[in-house]
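Records of this kind hold a single protein each, on a pair of labelled lines. With that in mind, the following record should read easily:
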Amino acid sequence: MSEFTNPNVEILISAEQIKEKIREMGADIARDYAGRNPLLIGVLKGACTFLSDLIRATDIPLGIEFIAISSYGAEMRTSGEVRILKDLDVAVAGRHILVVEDIVDTGLTLSYLLANLESRGAASVKLVALLDKYERREKDVPIDYLGFKIPDKFVVPTTQASCTHRLLVAYLKAARRADARFLSLRLTYFLSSRLCEKLNFRFPPSRKGKKDERRKERAKSNDVPSRSRYATAPSSW
């Protein structure tokens, strides 16, 4: 059963479907790269969960690396300007590379990344993706190992009630940007709080939190309504 019961959210791909698809992708990669010791490069941060599942499904020796790259500007609009935020820690010359991404949409970022890795002397560069938003494509990129093609919806990963990190892909029925942002924040808070709970860890109060408390106290004492910079969550959540 999904953690989400909100009427604005609907399951698009089930956990079992994703589990089976990743198993198939891992078997294909193991067959194609047997004896070649491929280097899997996860694109931060979205690909982390998918990459961890894919590694378990790929029964051959392999290397793991991470890269952070962005082509997004303000308000999540693709700017077309690509920047490497965190580069690789190893050389790729002569290696067989598998770039692992959770979602391919415009293709702008990945097109740059694939060309960049080829220019570094990689023996081969292939792309592995869990989801393909093909309707948003602006730059053609070949996806060599693909999980699912999906429509142009705002999709989010969530977890099962058992708190395993298996993905359930859901999308907002009402594609309002404010709702989408709030859902992402809610997911981040849920996952972070569950992890901290397991580790028996509590964050100390931040300076900002203390300042907010003092401001609210002053507002109450002066009988002046406090102006918060944060939007109130929709009542349906």
Remarks:
- Confidence is low (pLDDT under 50) at residues 159-167, 171-196, 198-204, 224-237.
- Residues 177-222 form one domain.
- The chain has two domains: 9-175, 177-222.
